[in-house]
Specification:
alpha/beta, Rossmann fold, 2 domains, six-stranded mixed sheet, 15 strands, elongated, transcription, transcription regulation
Length: 354
């Protein structure tokens, strides 16, 4: 079961008896079930076999049926995270809440305990709460789950999706490719050539984009990427520290590392400390996110500022527009990133000694 926090009583639910020429009775006849069964599916209620529920949903989707205006949404935004274990999530939550307060909406926070795809009963729970809409962060909703929300007239916006949203599903992210490109160019301009990268899960679009930006900068500079210096692992401190330790033990270790996020960069700091190395004297480090702790790190961390709070507020504003019947001008919004140069990068020792 997902964890849910927040306040707000479920709104009264109608079943949208008629939608154009397609009625609940028509859907029931085509699906071979009773009208009350169709209503239970529309309302996310229990008591319907999974095979029957999916058959009804398929007919609803095929005929473009959506609940009518009788089903009044609750003044809630459903904000879904796979996990809440980083300041990264807090920044996004604050952005969503800024818009929610302005619109007099509550926020229901749902966590999936580390799972990227919500469990089988998640959609039914959302339909029963009947929120104004759903923002899914770093999540991979199945096509079936996205279709269920659409059938229930619940708008969906994805933020940094780990899978591919259905065509037409709005999404918000940062300029991951250009952010990584600029970060890598910064290291190249300092004179580094043995540059490594700590990557995240390459099935995730934003991780692939950051690796692509890194490779593009190296290619444009005519500097070959040593495959031994590119490591893939979880976006956490511990795994990054392990990978960095392995890199530092190579016969030709990197003189600089670019990390996919600030937590990985923090892992580089820890590995360097344990190895008796100084940043940036012995190795330069660049992160990605600009979380609050980076400015107080020792030394303060050079990183790519990702506008996390604005990403949250942008996603919430898109959701409000969708709920009011507006069509978004753009289905994919990418917000700009900025390189924040602090004290964790410097020319490599060989250049400084010349």
């Amino acid at each position: 079961m997902p964890g849910v926090t927040g306040m707000g009583a479920p709104a009264s639910l109608g079943d949208g008896r008629r939608r154009g020429k397609v009625t609940v009775a028509t859907i029931a006849r085509l699906a071979g079930v009773s009208a009350p069964t169709v209503s239970r599916v529309l309302n996310g209620q229990a008591g319907v076999a999974l095979s029957t529920r999916r058959r009804v949903e398929a007919v609803l989707h095929e005929h473009g049926y959506q609940r009518g205006d009788a089903a009044t949404p609750a003044p809630l935004v459903e904000l879904v995270f796979h996990a809440l274990d980083s300041l990264w999530a807090l920044e996004i939550i604050q952005g969503v809440e800024e818009v929610a307060r302005d619109q007099k909406l509550g926020v229901v926070l749902t966590t999936m305990q580390g799972r990227l795809t919500p469990g089988a009963g998640w959609t039914e729970q959302v339909l029963s709460r009947r929120p104004m809409g759903v923002i899914a962060v770093l999540s991979d909703l199945t096509a079936h789950q996205q279709a269920q929300l659409a059938t229930g007239s619940i708008p969906l916006v994805t933020l940094d999706p780990t899978g591919e949203p259905l065509h037409g599903t709005p999404s918000v992210g940062a300029a991951n490719y250009s952010g990584a490109l600029v970060a890598t160019r910064h290291l190249l301009e300092l004179g580094h050539r043995r540059i490594g990268m700590l990557c995240g899960n390459l099935k995730w679009p934003f991780c692939r984009a950051r690796l692509d930006g890194f490779r593009a900068a190296m290619d444009q500079a005519g500097v070959p990427v040593d495959p031994d210096l590119v490591r893939v692992g979880p976006l956490y401190v511990e795994s990054a520290a392990r990978e960095t330790t392995a890199l530092l033990r190579l016969p030709e270790p990197p003189t600089a590392l670019f990390a996919t996020n600030d937590l990985q960069a923090h892992g580089v700091y820890e590995a360097a400390r344990l190895a008796g190395l100084r940043i940036p004297d012995d190795i330069s480090v660049v992160g990605f996110d600009d979380l609050p702790f980076t400015r107080w790190a020792g030394p303060p961390m050079t990183t790519v500022r990702q506008p996390l709070r604005r990403m949250g507020s942008t996603a919430a504003a898109m959701l409000v527009a969708l709920a009011s019947g507006q069509t978004p001008r753009e289905h994919r919004v990418e917000l700009t990133t900025d390189l924040v140069v602090r004290e964790s990068t410097a020319p490599p020792r060989t250049i400084r000694e010349i």
